[in-house]
Amino acid sequence: METIMKKQFDLTGKIALVTGAGQGLGKEFARSLASAGADVFIMARNVPRAEKAAEEIHEETGRKIWARFIDVTDEHSVMDAVQFVRDTTGRLDILVNNAALGRGVTPLQDTTLEEWNATMNTNLNGTFLCMKHFGKMMIAQKSGCVINLASLGGKVCLKNCCTGAYDVSKAAVEGLTRCMAGEWAQYNIRVNSICPGYILTDINKAYIAEHGDFYEKSLDHIPTRVWGNPEQMGDIAVFIASDAASYINGSNLVADGGYTIF
Questions:
Q1: What pLDDT digit, counting tens, does each position of 18-55 carry?
Q2: Whole-structure pTM over 0.90, yes or no?
Q3: For 2-199+229-252, CATH number?
Q4: Which of 126, 67, 137, 55 is nearest to 97 (CA)?
Q5: What is the rounded CA–CA span in Å between residue 114 and residue 126?
Q6: Please, is 200 exposed, middle or buried when counting C-beta atoms within 10 Å of its C-beta (0-12, 13-18, 19+)?
Q7: In the chain, what are the domain boundaries?
Q8: Which of 20, 49, 77, 160 is 20 to 30 Å from the Cα of 260, by its Cα?
């Protein structure tokens, strides 16, 4: 039984790509997928950071890891990245649309149109462009798994936070996920999203250090009274990408310690 279960989660022979993978959750998604056996493209705007992440993950896992530039808001950049994947591996099995701008600290009434558009362009339009062009590869090969990054903020109003463009963009990503799960099922492509709650990424740790009371206040809304860690999100990505989740399509897997219970 143990051997059968390991096989269900084994990604050996799969080709994965993670955007925004030079740090944070993106880097952890790449590491987890590689640890499960996949060869991984790490793509980000910060190439030195992506290259460093690729080197680390290769040393840890022994898998083939490629680092490359991508700007998910630029359609030509996305198309160039697709060609790079075609030329390198000839196929793509797993696409993780992780690249995003984080939550801002400006109240909606003070948010400029430029700030609003910047968030939408990366979080929503970037996901759309990557799905559009990498999706064509998957449609041609009639197989694939797309994992989009939604957010707790796209489902509920978070207390003690400035809501606005970020939350709206993530709610839209969840909607896009459901739509394309239905449209692409005919091509044997599954489309799902992950909805993380509060996660202890380096960026969030830095925010907590500057706003000491925010962490304690947030725990009042989390039944488990703990924040999640990036490794837990990586495990979820492996599950969604694996044969163990072969009947899961169009779902938004919530991992928030129970925040949305109330």
A1: 999 999 999 999 999 999 999 999 999 999 999 999 99
A2: yes
A3: 3.40.50.720
A4: 126
A5: 16
A6: middle
A7: 2-199+229-252
A8: 20
